[in-house]
Task: inverse folding
């Protein structure tokens, strides 16, 4: 099975940028559909971004469109989430997740459908 280790995150002022990384070990991340989720205190976990195995199909939540970008570094077996123009409402714990066995152009946006999860990383945006 694949293990996911997250890095990045932290504290930033509104309008700033952060990059989250999700490094995989045990298996090639390119064999997995990958998604990023976030959970704010008192709220349900929500899908932020998801990409298919081929990276041809990508989902972005309306709240992050134009500000967040997902990318995959196959050489490092890592996926990145670049977050720009951050807002206080982006404050949450962010998780990467991976699912194996989907079609190459399938995007998965439901948390329960994912098999493997990173440990989570806190992102705090001050106003």
Result:
């Amino acid at each position: 099975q694949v293990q996911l280790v997250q890095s990045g995150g932290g504290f930033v002022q509104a309008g700033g940028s952060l990059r989250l990384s999700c490094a995989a070990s045990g298996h090639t991340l390119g064999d997995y559909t990958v998604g990023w989720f976030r959970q704010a205190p008192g709220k349900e976990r929500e899908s932020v971004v998801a990409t298919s195995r081929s990276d041809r199909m990508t989902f972005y939540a309306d709240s992050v469109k134009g500000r967040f970008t997902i990318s995959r570094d196959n050489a490092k077996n890592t996926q990145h989430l670049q977050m720009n123009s951050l807002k206080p409402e982006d404050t949450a714990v962010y998780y990467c997740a991976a699912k194996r066995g989907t079609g190459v152009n399938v995007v998965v946006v439901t948390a329960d459908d994912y098999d493997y999860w990173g440990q989570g990383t806190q992102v705090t945006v001050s106003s």
